[in-house]
Structure formats: C-alpha cells, structure tokens
Amino acid sequence: MIKSLLCVFLLSVSTGVFAANITIKNANNDPLPNAVVWLTAGGPSSVIPPEAPYAMTQQNREFKPRILVVPQNAKVEFPNADSIMHHVYSFSKAKTFELKLYKEHPKAPITFDQTGVVELGCNIHDWMLGYIVVVDSTIFAITDENGHVDLNTNAGEYTLSVWHSGFSDISKIESQTITVATNPITYKVKQEIAEQIDFATDEFDDY
Amino acid sequence: MIINRLMRLALLAGALCFSNVLYAQVKGLIQIRAVQGDNTLSFQEGGIGLYRHDTKSDELILSQGILDFNVDLASSWSAHGVLNANQDPDVGLGFTQAFVKYQPLSNSNYKWHVRVGGFYPLMSLENPDIGWTSPYNYTNSAINSWIGEEVRTVGAEVTIKRPAKRFNSRHSFSFVGATFKGNDPAGTLLAWRGFALHDRQTTFNESVQFAPVAALNEYELRWQANQVLPFEEVDGRFGYYAGIHWDYLKQSQFRIYYYDNNGDPNTVNYSSGQYAWNTRFTSAAWLYKFNSKTRFIAQALNGKTEMGSNALIDNAFYSHYLMLSHKEGKHRVSVRYDYFKVTDNDTTAFDPNASNGEGLTATWRYQLTNKLQIGVEGSALKSAAKNREPIGFNERISQQQIMLNAQWRF
C-alpha cells in the first residue's frame, strides 16, 4: 500500500510520466481482452531485464499464467505444482527447448534471449497450451476484460505492438506508431481473433 | 516366454534408471478392506459366486496393493510398470502392466506414441486411477471385471492423435491400432462362469479358477484345466485391436474398440490345459460431465467366442453398465447398474454356457486427507447359469455384499 502510494506520488511529481491509457479492440470494434501490448521507443533498444526469474507454472494440468510477457534476456523458471510429470516443450523460433519437469526436481531457469512468441505445449497433456511473449521493452501489459491497459511511460513517440493468442498466425505481431500524451489511445487489430476454447479437465483425463 | 522377456525389459529399464540417475516416479496405493461377504463361495475359491469375496473373507484383507513405476529413459522414451500384491485367493506378487512407451516430441499438430510390452487396451472410462483402478465404485462393472481378469495386450500399440487444442477445435480424435501375442484363452471364464463383479486384476503370472463345471468331465473337454491362464500364447497367431477416441471439450468422451484375439479354436496346450478361444468383441464407452461435479459413464460390450473343433463351444456375450457419480467437496457417491448375458449358440448339449444377471452397486467415498480415503460400498446381484444345476446348485442365485475400505496413497 505504502509502496503504491509512493509510486503515485513519484509519478505525479516527475514531469512527463503518464499512464498511457490504451484500449485494444477487435475488428468488430468490441474490446479485446488478453491482448499483449507493449511500447518501444525509437533508437537502439536497451532492455535490462530484472535479475529475478519470471515463472511459468504448471498447475492442475494447465499453464499458469496462460500468457507470460517478459523482456528480452529475462530468465523464466518452470515450476511444476502438480504431483505428476509434465514434459514442456517449444518448437518456436524464439526459443526451442524441452524440459521434463517434476515437482521434486525443479530445473534451472531458461533465458529468453530472442524476441518473439514462444508457444508452449506439454507432450503428456496435449490440451495444455501456453505462451511466453518475449518483447524488446519493459513497458508492457495484458489487456483486462475491457480491452484496457495502462502503461507508465514518458510522453513521446513510441511503437505500439499488439499480439493475441487468437491470431491465426501467432508469429504476426501488429505495430503502429503512436504519440503518448494525455489522450487515450485506441487500437483496432487487423487480424481475425479465433475464439479461445476452454477445456474442463480433471485428474482422470490423463488416461 | 513373451512375458519373461517383458519382465527382463522392465528390469533393464530399472537398471538403466539407477545407472544413469534418470528420474523415476513411483506411486503406490494400499487399500485395506473389511467385507461382509455372501455365503456363496467365490469363483476365486472354485465356487459359483460372482463376487471376489464370500463369508470366508469376513476379515481384513489387502484389496489393492499397487506400485506404479514411471521411469524416464530418454527424452521420448519411458518405462512403465504396475506391480500388484494380492492375498486372495493366494498370496502373490506380479505385474499387471509392464511396457515401454515412445512418445516423440513433434512440431506437427498431430501427435503419436507407441506402447510395447504388456498393457490394457484403453477401452474403459471407469478405470482411470492408479494401476487401472476405479475412482468411482470399488467393485468394477461386469465388463471391466472381465477385462481386468482376462484381457491384456502383450504386443505393440500405435496411437495417432489429433488434439483439439492444437487445431483450435472442440473435438479431439485418437486412432489406436495394436497387434499382440498371447491372450488366447480369453473367453474361458465367460463360458464356464459368466460375467462377475470384482476388482481383482489378474497379474501376468496368474491363473483364475472357476467352479468345477460338469462338462469338464466329458471326453471332449478332457484337456481343459479347471482354471484359466488368460494371457497364455496357445496358437502362435497374432491378435489385433483397433479403436477410436472422440472427445468433445473433454466434457464428452467416447471410445469405441474392436478386439479380436484371432485365436485358432482347434489348438490346445495340453500341458497347461488351455485352449485358444477365438474371442472378438466391440466395446463402446461414453463419459459425459454434466458439470465439474457430476458425471455419467456407460459402456457396452458385445462379442462372440468359439473354442474346440467344429464349434464345440460357440457363445455370444453382451454386457452394459450405466453409472452416475457425483463429487461434493471431499465426498464422492457413485451408483452403477450392470446387465450381463452369455448366449450358448452351439449344439454341445453336455456343456450349457448360457448365463445372465444384473447388479446394483452403490459407493460412498470420503477423502480424509490428500493421501487417506475411506469408503463404504453395498452391492447386490442376481444371476442365473445353466451349468449350475448339473453340479448341484440352483440355477438362479442372489448375492449381496457390504464392504468398508481404507486406502493410503504415496
């Protein structure tokens, strides 16, 4: 609480720092939840990822979170919270790997040094699908159910990038140049968004 | 022979595991049971009773003692084994499953895997728990009681899967094909005992007894033993099965299989007293989740079996069950109705094989902790068999049993 108050205070005194108010909509003009949004400033990127690793957990035979956004060169660990083994893999260009994961034997984190979308699967539970979106930015967020994100940054010109797991080609990231000022920004994605299908699985569905 | 090789393979896998410090997952289940049994002697003791237990079992028994191994051999290879300890009818230890699985990582949206060794064809939706046990009733349906005692694959199985998630579809399909040796005497119990209701899986090295039916005293059946070694190879021929799994959102799961052991009914192993039975059947199973708590499971099995020259024995068999299971917090209640029937289609008058029956089983389980579960089950069944009168029993019998179970998992 004190931390967030302090943040608000610091934000309000430092000149030019905004919460860029961005809304993402689909082709029908409806708000688009679960879209990954990030901003990159012009010039060479100088992304310094945090030292502590991010986590992509496997819990109740699902990836948690389903979508994880990390800055380039970030470390990600893959804790298995289930009592059964998961065999997590990716064939994506941005990172190809496989990990056999047991609750009792955590593996060392993996560094994601290439930007792009990493699609995760489990060789044992084929309904498990997760994504790690590696971006050349530290200004990112995932839209809420109103298709909305607030990104704290300085006023100025940026490239706004948007990705959604419903894109038919998940490697196609949409981008547009925007100017961050006081005005709210709305971006309408060009690609069709496939409906996300949820599966009600339980512990007996492995069989 | 094949089974010995299988065991060697499993041991080799185990040795590999320890030499290379690969990971092995070992899980277990110990289930202790107190039964108020029926006074009709169980088939396990050579009686005509269709339950696993009878009044002789009115004491604490180890109803399930299971060790389930899963050893990682390499990225795509793993070895699996299920070791079962039993004390009825005799104290024994043996494998019910032992196989190697090859499941390659593939960039394709289609997935595939192969199992080689000894395993169950995955026809049942009733037995998804550790070591092919049921999380619903303690006593399996008539269909899966029979599959657990007489049907096992010692061979190779290939599965090609179209997982729904990979196609952003609501439907998943799996196509399964297998070929196997052994399992020639499957069908013996259906002919001379009929279907039964129990949870006693036969290990690879075991035989199952049945009542000493009068027909076995006849000249034509003089080589037949008063027990079945269900997984034995008798005729040297390969059997096969094929199946399709169709899942809709995992809410509805449907499986259909056709199984044919391709037994040559004219062949007999004189030393073990086992015939090859030409047993083939279709199994269709359906699971439907009304919601996360309540589910319905049904299965139907329809088939034929033939044994001896000139259709000495020619039977048809049919069974179905309907089950409703509801989970509420730490409680699970499951109720199941079974129907089963064997039709005698041959003209061998001295060997009547017709039998039929129905059963009702209700189970309540309570999860005390993650590892401890207790439960109670009541079951009633009535049955008729034409071969009972010739050995001095009533054709029709009714049986009931009540049991308490306590299980511990590790």
Question: Could you walk me through the main structural features you see in this protein, from its secondary elements to its overall organization?
Answer:
The complex is a heterodimer of chains A (207) and B (410). Chain A has one helix at 2-13; strands spanning 17-25, 36-41, 54-55, 57-59, 62-64, 67-71, 74-77, 86-92, 95-101, 110-112, 116-122, 129-135, 139-142, 148-154, 156-163, 174-180, 185-188. By secondary structure, chain A is mostly beta strands. In chain A, the strands form five sheets. A five-stranded mixed beta sheet of chain A has the order 6-12-11-8-9, with no helix packed on it. In chain A, a hairpin with a 2-residue loop joins strand 4 and strand 5 (62-64). Chain B is mainly beta. Chain B is globular, with a radius of gyration of 21 Å. Chain B has helices spanning 2-20, 142-150, 188-192; strands spanning 24-36, 60-72, 77-86, 92-102, 111-119, 153-162, 171-181, 208-209, 227-228, 239-248, 252-260, 268-269, 274-275, 278-289, 294-307, 313-328, 331-344, 355-367, 372-385, 396-409. In chain B, the strands form three sheets. Chain B has a 16-stranded antiparallel barrel. In chain B, strands 8-9 form a two-stranded antiparallel ribbon. A two-stranded antiparallel ribbon of chain B has the order 12-13. At the A-B interface, strand 8 of A face loops of B.
